[in-house]
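User: I'm putting together a teaching handout on how sequence relates to shape, and I'd like one worked example. Could you take O-antigen ligase domain-containing protein from Aquabacterium lacunae, show the sequence you're using, and then write out its predicted structure as C-alpha cells right after it?

Assistant: Happy to. First the sequence, then the C-alpha cells directly below it.
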Amino acid sequence: MSPVLAVSTGLLMAMLIVWWPWAGVAAPVVLCALLLVCRHPLWMLPVWFISLGIPVQKSLAGLPLTLSDALLVGWWMLLPFLKWPGSERAQPSRWRLPDITRAMLPFLVAAALSQWGSINPSASFKQLLRLVEWFVLLPWVLTSLRWDLQTRRFAALVLMVAPCAFALDGVVEYITHGRSVSGMLGIGVPVPEGTQTIRHTFDVSGRAGSTFGGAQGLAMFLAMSGSVAWAHCLRPTASWHRPLALLSLLVSAAGLAVSQSRGGMLGAAVMLTVIALSCHAGLRRGSRWGLLLVALAAWLGLSLWPQWDGSVEGLVPGRPEAVLDRLIIWGKALQVASESPWFGVGLSNFRDAFYGQEPWLHVPLGYASTHAHNTYLEILADTGGVGLACYLLFLFWMGRGLWLRWQARGDTFTLAALGALGAYLVFATVDMLLLQNMHMLLVTLLTLGLNQEDGRRLGMGRESKHHRVPGSVYTTGGRWA
C-alpha cells in the first residue's frame, strides 16, 4: 500500500507543478511539514503559541478566521495520524469530555438559548461557533498530547521564549516610531476597515502594539503568558528554568513598558500577586496583606503619576473622552441587559442593540470596533443573567480546580495557570475578550495547569482511585497516546 500511495502522491505533485508552478512548489513543502508534525507532534506547540500572538483576521464565508483557527482545525484533522514516541496510540476504554469543556457546558447551553431572542441570529450563531471552537475543539486537541515531563519542559521553553519575540517587536516599534519588525515581515494588524473606525495603532496612539495593533492586546498577551515565566522563576523544575524565566520577565517588562497600558500593568500586578500568594503560604497571613495592598497601590500610583489630576476622566492622561465614553457604553450595556434580562439579545449583538439606542459619544466608533469594553457586561447584555451566571460559574470552577490541584501536587504549570486566570479576571473588567485570541491562550494555560506530569490527561476516561486529588471536582484520564 505504501509504494502505491507514494507513486500516486508523486504523480499528483508532478502534474500540479506543471499546471500551477507556485502551488506545485508549495505542496511538497506543506506535505513534508505535515509528515514532520505527524512524526513529532511536539513541534506543533511552538507554532501554536506563536499563532496566538498574531490575531489578524481573514473572512471566510462571513466568518472571521485567524491563523490560530486554521492551525487548530488542521491539528484536529491530523489527530488520527499523530505518532507518539515510546508507545503506540490506543483508544481509551471510556471516553469523556475534557473537564474544561464540561465546566463550560452550562454557558454554551445559555448561549444557544440566547439564539431564541437574538436580534441578529447570523452574527450570534457565528460567535457560538467560536465558543465551541475555543472550549470544545481546543481542549480536545490539547488533551490528546502526552503531557509527560519532556513535553512540559518543552512547553515551558516555548512559553518563556515566544512572548519575548512580541515584546521585542513592541520595543522596536516604539524606538523606531512605528516601524515594527513584524510589519517589515508583512504581518498585518487587526485594524477595522474604513476611515471612521477607531484605531489603536502606533501612528494614532503612540503606544506599541506589535502584531496586535493595539497596546492593550500586547499587554494582555505578555501579562498572561508571563505567568509561566514567573511560576518557573519561583518553582523551577530544571536548572535552566530560573535564568531563562528571569530573562523572559525582563524582556516582557520592557514590552509592557512601551505598551503604556494601565490595564496591562494592573493585570501583571495581579498575576504576580496571585502566584506569590499561592507559592508562599506565609504571604497569605493577614498581617502581610496590608503590605501587599500598599505595594499594589504604589504600583498603580506610580503608573498614573504625575499626569493624573484625581478625576475619573483623568485616569487616562490626555484622553478624558475615552473614560467618559467607556462609562456611557457601560451604562448602555446595563440598559440593554435590563430589557432582555434572562437570555439577552444574542451573542455578539450588543453593538446592534447599542446603535439601536442612538447613543452620543465623544469619539465616534466604527461599527466593527464597538463592544462593551467589559467582558462581564458584554456577556450580560448578550446572554442575559443566566449566561453571566454560567460564565462566572465556569471561572469559579476553574479557579477552584486549579487551587485544589496546586495544593495537592504543587505543579508549576498549575501555579502559572492560577496567575493567568487572575490576570484574565482583571482584563475582563476593562476589555471585551471574546473578540481576541485571549480565550485560546487562557484555555491553553488552563489545560497545562490541569494536566498531570506523568502523562495522564485530564477528562479522558475515569480517574484511578490511586490518583484522585482530594476534594477536586476534576478527573484525570487513562492513557491515550
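A couple of points you could highlight for students: The mean pLDDT is 77. The chain is about 60% helix and 0% strand.
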